[in-house]
Design brief:
The chain has 408 residues and is of the alpha+beta class. It folds into two domains: 189 residues, no CATH class; 206 residues, no CATH class. The chain is 55% helix and 16% strand. It has 15 helices and ten strands. Strands 2-3-8-5-7-6 form a six-stranded mixed beta barrel. 38% of the residues are buried.
């Protein structure tokens, strides 16, 4: 039965080679389009998340500003100022907080020999490296002894290290920051980062102990606070607790969102995930419409096949074949054509993705790949369009009047 099914199918395809080619090419091109669009959409989404994670993960960043409403006798417009010591009390006073780092930052002149740049200097603590993914490729990051003794040491980004030292080994050398020498203790490992919340990207920055920054530059109040909750799911709760705690301690209403502006990375990441999900659905719809054109072609060829095989259908019905059997025969013939064209399109797309020099475009669109979800979505779309395309010709074949068919 199966052998006869495929024999009839390929005979129909062989009798009309041009019609067969046009029909299969429509399905092949549609599948090729949907696979490539979904693969590139998935790659773009992953690359954007990767570049965002270069700045850090599960971060909450709070910027002290000014009050916009009266609170306990204070008029609006009061400056909200936080010292490093007050920022660090968050770790003990607020539940579900894993790490905290106060941060000073300002652009300063950084010089080594004849090379000089005006780059961002950040005053931070030891745990900052884990919160912001500033991992050392050479040497080390700031340690607790550097903090306690207010050492004039610095950890530098990989780009500024290359700009200052070129082919020299940076670790152990001294750079001059606004006239003050600092010993380089480490160089950051290269990371992908497309933005920063303040100042330059980390690859251009110089990091020093915030205790050194405060004593050297006379800075008492920090620019911002970095907070990392124990779990990403708790970030919203931690934001409210931090706002309440600092409001009570410093003197502003927790309802005054502008007094302490807080950016929750986890919430932003959720929004970004929703955006890229919608983006991939949009791309999938475009590819599906392209494939639908191929499905229309399959439906057309199957209607012609039904007309050509009217006498055969009549004979089958006259000798006792059930209409359901006729319907299933033509339905599965249409579905098989869709799947053959889909397989060819899938293979062409996979081959193209193999030969594309993805390393040249990785920073922009990531690495497009045919993963499990892309394959599954493509198969589902093929089956749906194949079912729709095959149902109408199959129903027409099943409704054939055997007597009328035998007269023709």
């Amino acid at each position: 039965m199966i052998v006869l099914f495929f024999k009839n199918l390929f005979m129909d395809l062989y009798r009309q080679p041009m019609r067969t080619f046009l029909t299969l090419s429509g399905v092949t091109w549609g599948t090729f389009a949907i696979v490539l669009l979904l693969a590139f959409g998935s790659g773009v989404g992953k690359q954007n998340m990767k570049t965002m994670h270069g700045m850090g993960q599960t971060l909450i960043i709070a910027w002290p500003a000014a009050t916009t409403m009266p609170y306990k006798g204070f008029i609006k417009g009061k400056q909200v100022r936080v010292t490093p010591e007050e920022a660090m009390t968050i770790l003990d006073k607020v539940e579900d907080v894993l790490r905290v780092s106060p941060e000073f930052l300002r652009n300063k002149r950084i010089r080594y020999k004849k090379e000089e740049f005006n780059n961002t200097v950040r005053g931070v603590n030891v745990v900052y490296q884990y919160m912001r993914n500033t991992i050392a490729q050479k040497g080390r990051f700031i340690n607790q002894l550097d903090m306690t003794q207010r050492r004039r040491v610095c950890f530098i980004g990989n780009v500024i290290a290359n700009n200052l030292f070129h082919d020299e080994e940076p670790v152990g050398k001294q750079v001059v920051v606004e006239g003050t020498p600092f010993t380089v203790i480490g160089v950051m490992k290269k990371k992908i980062q497309n933005s920063n919340y303040s100042g330059q990207r980390d690859e251009h920055c110089l990091f020093i102990p915030h205790t050194t920054y405060s004593s050297l530059y006379g800075a008492k109040y920090i620019n911002n606070i970095l907070i990392q909750p124990t779990h990403a799911e708790l970030s919203g709760t931690v934001v409210e607790r931090v706002r309440h705690y600092l409001g009570e301690r410093i003197g502003f209403s927790e309802k005054d969102k502008d007094a302490l502006f807080i950016w929750d990375f986890s919430q932003f990441e959720k929004s970004l995930n929703v955006f890229f999900l919608a983006f991939n659905i949009f791309l999938g719809m475009i590819g599906s419409f392209t494939l639908l054109v191929g499905g229309v072609g399959v439906a057309s060829i199957m209607l012609v096949v039904v007309e050509e095989r009217t006498r055969e259908i009549g004979v089958k019905l006259a000798v006792g074949a059930k209409r359901r059997d006729v319907l299933l025969q033509f339905f599965f013939e249409a579905l098989t054509i869709i799947l053959i064209g889909g397989m060819i399109g899938f293979l062409f797309a996979a081959l193209l993705l193999k030969i594309i020099p993805v390393k040249m475009i990785e920073d922009f669109v990531g690495i497009p790949s045919i993963n499990y979800s892309v394959g599954l979505i493509t198969i589902i779309v093929l089956l749906l369009i194949g079912s729709v395309s095959g149902l109408m010709p199959a129903r027409r074949a099943a409704s054939t009047n055997p007597i009328q068919a035998l007269k023709n």
